[in-house]
TrEMBL record:
GO terms for cellular component: cytoplasm. The gene is nagB. The active site is at residues 67, 136, 138, 143. Residues 11-225 form the Glucosamine/galactosamine-6-phosphate isomerase domain. Belongs to the glucosamine/galactosamine-6-phosphate isomerase family. NagB subfamily. NCBIfam families: nagB. Catalyzes the reversible isomerization-deamination of glucosamine 6-phosphate (GlcN6P) to form fructose 6-phosphate (Fru6P) and ammonium ion. GO terms for biological process: carbohydrate metabolic process; glucosamine catabolic process; N-acetylglucosamine catabolic process; N-acetylneuraminate catabolic process. The lineage of its organism: Bacteria, Bacillati, Actinomycetota, Coriobacteriia, Eggerthellales. It comes from Berryella intestinalis. It is an enzyme of class 3 (hydrolase). One of its GO terms (molecular function) is glucosamine-6-phosphate deaminase activity. This is Glucosamine-6-phosphate deaminase.
């Protein structure tokens, strides 16, 4: 595992964008696993500017997002599909048909999750998976539990996650209680993983995830067992790692 501590959020975003941009340059047809949340917004902006500058093209890239709220259609402002359109897909030269987010509007959880897992498999798997970290160590929406869920599945969100994500909704009651998420197994099958974290409120979980015991109570801790992980954090999030 390679841990990079950068000066600030801007430097973290640039360093993470460099990892993704290099992958696209090496393999223009790569399959990227993408994440939502506040942390990757800066790195998506960097990728948009690289694309506009003609340095990279998403023309042959395909993408799979980690997760989506169950019950929100893609045109809902708080859906992760909408987030991705706004921060990346609508701003680069990607083929809309090559962008994938679990279908939150499909109420049939089994079908929605199976279709998603199957589609990743048919694409040949994920080459580079981007991850943020929840305060409780969740990756995607894999919440702390007694076991590591393997495949894409339906989850009930923990109260702390609902609270953290309520900042993006008008009222906490509007935050969906359930989501579809790639499983920990889906994530671990990616050839390469890139984790980003920023801010002092992430310092403890960065430490627990990468220096603590591997346990499903801290889902991100399993990344210690992956052969190709890069963690890029700013100074505040990396404060306990030095
Ligand atoms: N499902 C997403 C995660 O994929 C994300 O990593 C996490 C952290 O978000 P943030 O970057 O805003 O702290 O939030 C959400 O719960």
């Amino acid at each position: 595992m390679n841990i990079v501590i950068t000066d600030d959020y801007a430097a973290m975003s640039r360093a993470a964008a460099d990892v993704i941009a290099s992958r696209i340059k090496e393999d223009p047809r790569c399959v990227l696993g993408l994440a939502t949340g506040s942390t990757p917004i800066g790195l998506y902006a960097e990728l948009v500017s690289d694309c506009n500058a003609g340095e990279i093209s998403f023309g042959e890239v395909s993408t799979y997002n980690l997760d989506e709220y169950r019950g929100l259609a893609g045109d809902h402002e708080q859906s992760y599909r909408h987030f991705m359109q706004k921060h990346l897909f609508d701003l680069v030269d990607i083929d809309p048909a090559a962008t994938h987010v679990p279908d939150g509007a499909n109420d049939d959880a089994e079908a929605a999750c199976w279709d998603y897992e199957q589609s990743i498999f048919e694409a040949g798997g994920i080459d580079l998976q981007l991850l943020g970290l929840g305060h409780n160590g969740h990756i995607g929406f894999n919440e702390p539990s007694d076991e590591f869920p393997v495949n894409t599945h339906l989850v009930k969100l923990h109260e702390r996650t609902i609270e953290a994500n309520s900042r993006l909704f008008d009222h906490i009651d509007e935050v969906p209680r359930e989501a579809y998420t790639m499983g920990v197994g889906t994530i671990m099958h990616a050839a390469e993983i890139l984790v980003v974290a920023s801010g002092s409120d992430k310092a403890q979980i960065v430490y627990d995830a990468f220096f603590g015991p591997v346990t499903p109570q801290v889902p991100a801790s399993i990344l210690q067992l992956h052969p190709n992980v890069t963690v890029i954090v700013d100074e505040e999030a990396g404060a306990l790692c030095v």
